[in-house]
Structure formats: structure tokens, C-alpha cells
Specification:
Strand order of the largest sheet: 1-2
Radius of gyration: 24 Å
Number of strands: 4
Strand content: under 5%
Structural class: mainly alpha
Shape: globular
Length: 416
Amino acid sequence: MTGTTAPKGATGTIGTTALTGLRTAIHRVDRATPAERDRAVDALRALAILGVVLGHWLVTALVADGGALRTASPLRYMPWLTPVSWAFQTLAVFFLVGGHVATKSYASARSRGTTYGQWLRARTERLLRPVAAVLTLWAVATGCLLVSGADFRTVHTLVKLALSPLWFLVVFAGLTAATPLLTRLNPLWPLTVVLHVDVVRFGFGGPAWLGWVNVAAGWLVPYALGAAWTRGELEGPRAGRLLFAGGAVATAALVLWAGYPASMVGIPGAAVSNLDPPTLAAVTFGLAQCGLALMLREPLRRGMRRPVVWAGTAFANLSAMTIFLWHQTSLMAVTALGLLAGRLPGLHTTPDSLAWVAVRLAWLPVFGCALTLCWFAFSVHERGPRRPTGRPSLVVRVHRVRGGPGRPTPKASPRA
């Protein structure tokens, strides 16, 4: 029987060609990035996104309870895992970078004569465009689940988790719109607001709804720190050390003596959440994180000089909104499909043991594969439609070669 086989060495040749092409692409991204770009900013944004994604995948469990799914957290059953929430609750770093990039971008736009409306439209278009795809998919999915007779509690749990990232976008978009008013704001002002809100809520038994003031005021603190970074007020190493030490000491004092929860993420069933809405402890913890981020700028700049590391960071930044918006959907897709095989450990079981943690870690690559599929399907909504040939995009900047007019050289860099 005669079969068709690949020529000897063909497989190795294909692999070598693919590897060579990948190396070429990596070095092309490195060479095309403008020399003046601060790569540490992109690295911090990528780390913040990675922290949020891994944090949700590790501490959000969907437990199969009869015919329904309910949320649970390993932090409720194993409180000694609380430090995990300190490592992966990185939203303050994202707002720090967002405030720095937005205020720097606005100053640049004003110097070019760009109007506020034009600047805001450009800033928010890529931020909000991917949301339509998420809302559409989940509107259809919700309708199908309800029509098929799915348990209402399960549908509510899934939709709440899938759409939970949207609160962040609303706050971030609001702060972006207010950037011209925040360029000179001292972070102590919103910090004072958070302090007074918590004193009224917890010290004098004020209404619970008052805490929602901190959704804006609490995240304005790191955003205003980003504006201070743009003004050059946080450039020295001393600023980062002071923020880190002060924030860490204040957070420890609030947890040990003021009764704030030690976990920096919400735990189902807990009386008080540091994150929903943000408390003073969450804000002081964010100050410590921002201080650490500022201290890491120089090491990150050195690390980003490696082409392969920079290429991965650039890709993460270009796909930041897709990753952020779809990571919960990826988790739920794997969980739902897994039910077809029965109640699987680490996926549908109660997160109450080290065995669950070990198995959960093994599920992370599966969640990553599901997120990759979501990226292939929906990243086009973040990138936007193809631009006409010859028109420079936000990603590709065309510069003319010195001494050679008419010969353009493309320079690519991740969008801020």
C-alpha cells in the first residue's frame, strides 16, 4: 500500500521557517517602536490587565449546585489565601497608567490644535467599540438560555459575571472625559472624599448608598497620581518609596485596627467588600501598588529592551480591551462546556481545599485557550475596520527617511 509522506526533513524545514519568521517579526516590532516611547508604561498596563484576568480566574468559582450554578470564592473557605488578592487586584495600576497617558495625550493634542471633542472621540472610540460585541452576544445568549428553560439564578449569575467588567469602563470613560479638569488635581482631594465617606458610613452609621461616591472618588486617586506623573512630580525614586510605604502602613492599620477586610476583592457572603464599592482600605492599598509600580519603572525599561519581551507586551497592549472584556466569558464557556462531562473538580466543585487550588491552576491554560478563541473572533472590534491604503493608523506611524524624501519607513508602536 503506497501512502503519501512528507519529504525527509520537510517538517523540520517548515518549523525552522516559522521560527525564523517569528524572530523577524519580533525584531521588526522592536526596531519600529519610536525611541522616545516609555516602554515601562506599556509594561505596567500589561501587568495590570494580567493581574485582573488571573485574579478572576483564580478566585471566581462557579459551583454546580443541583441544576444551577452559583458563585463562590476560595477566599471564603481558605482565608489564609487572602494575599492572593493583594497580588492580583491591580486596578489601581491601570488607573495610574490611564491618568498618565490621558493627561500626556491631552497636552499633546492641545499643542497640535486638536479640539477637546476630537481628542475625546479618539480616546473613547477604541475603549467603547468592543463593548457592543459583548452586549450583543450576551443579549442573544441570555434569550436562548431563558427560552430553553435554564434556571433563572444560573442565568443571572452568568450575565452578572460576564458584564461585571463594564463598570470599570464606565468609570474609566468618565475620568477620561474629565481629564482637562484633572490635569492639576492633587490626589489628596479625592482621597479626603473617600476618607469622609467611610467615616460617615462606618463611623456614624450613614446610609450604605453613600459608599458609591467612592466609585468615582476612589479611582480618581490613582488617576490623579497619573496626572502628577505627567507633571514630573513622581520622577524621583523617593516618590515611589513614600507612596509604597505610606500606603502599606495605612492599609495594615485599617485592617488590623479599623475592622476593614483583609481581602482586596469581594467575597460572596461577606458583610463588607473593599471593592464593591471601594473603601478607604482599597484606596490606600492602591497607593501602595502605585508606589511599587513607580519603583519598578527602571527595571521594566531595562527588561523591555529585550525584543521578545517587548513584542509580547506590545501585543497585550493592542489587545487590552478584548482580553479584559472577554476573560470572564472564557471562564464561563469552559465551565458550561465542562458540565457536559459531569461535575469536574476545580471547575464545578466547592473551592474549599488545597486540592481544588491545585486543580484550578491546571485549568488556567484551558481558560487561556478559550480566551485566545475569543480574541480571534472579537479583536477586530478593538482594532476597528481596515483603513484605506496609505492612510497612517494609530498603530503605524509613517516617517520619511532622512536624505531620502518620498521613501516612507513604517514605524509601529502600541496605541496608548
